[in-house]
Structure formats: C-alpha cells, structure tokens
Design goal:
This protein is α+β, with helices and mostly antiparallel strands. The chain is built from three helices and nine strands, in the order βαββαβββββαβ. The strands form two sheets. Strands 2, 3, 6, 7 and 8 form a five-stranded antiparallel beta sheet that branches. Strands 1-9-4-5 form a four-stranded mixed beta sheet, with no helix packed on it. A hairpin with a 6-residue loop joins β2 and β3. The chain is globular, with a radius of gyration of 13 Å.
C-alpha cells in the first residue's frame, strides 16, 4: 500500500497475520452459502500504513482495478481477507487476498457498488485524493 507519490508500505501474509484479526460470516454472490472470512480490517490496514488520501485504488493480479472510497474503511466494514472457512485463499481463484464486505450484516452492503469494490486476487492498494 502506498500514498500516491509516496513510499510504499508492503504487507506480506506474515505481516497481515501479525495485525489484529477480523472475522465475519457472510454470503456472497460468488460463493455458495455462508462463508467465514478471516483477514485484516481495511480500517486497520490504513491506520497501520499511516497513509492519507480519500480514495483507495485497488489493483488485481490480472490488471482489474477499482476505486474504493476511504470512507468505506470503517470498523465492522470490509476486510482484506486471506482465508475462507479457515483455508488460505487459493491464488488461482480468489486469492491470495480479497477485499470482502460483510454483506449480511447490513442491507446497504448488498448494493452493486459494494460488489464492484470486492476485488479478488488483490495485488496492491494505492491511496489518492
């Protein structure tokens, strides 16, 4: 993760697992049934990186990119998941990281805009204004 034009803050799996763990169960449009997701709250990740900006540009391994307002990064909100049902996210499928929202916790999260922000095969995050 980095602020645009700034020095990148790099988080590998070990670094992410050393941060406070956030877990929730939710259904998604991409999976069957309710899944337990484990990862780091996007809010905690931004705080740890000490970066500033109003928009998070998330980039996937395949080049897909999406913009996420920093206002989404709240406690009880999205996480950067690294496990589904206790298993590491498969790199060939959704992994190694997936920004996932707790869809079942709030009807607002079921809006298409939040589905669009749920980027899988996450490679990088950049903060911009």
């Amino acid at each position: 993760m980095q602020a645009e034009g700034g020095e990148p803050a790099t988080f590998d799996l070990e670094a992410l697992k050393a941060m406070p763990v956030t877990e929730f169960e939710t259904s998604t449009v991409w999976t069957d049934g309710v899944i337990r997701f484990t990862g780091v709250a996007l809010a905690d990740l931004l705080e740890d990186a000490d970066a500033e900006g109003t928009v998070i540009r998330a980039m996937a391994r395949d080049g897909y990119a999406v913009e996420i307002p920093v206002t989404d990064a709240v406690q009880g909100g999205p996480i950067v998941a690294y496990q589904m049902d206790g298993e590491p996210l498969d790199v060939e499928m959704m992994g190694p990281y997936w920004i996932i929202y707790p869809y079942d916790s709030d009807e607002a999260y079921k809006a298409k805009e939040f589905e669009d922000r749920s980027i899988w095969q996450l490679k990088s995050l950049t903060l911009t204004d």
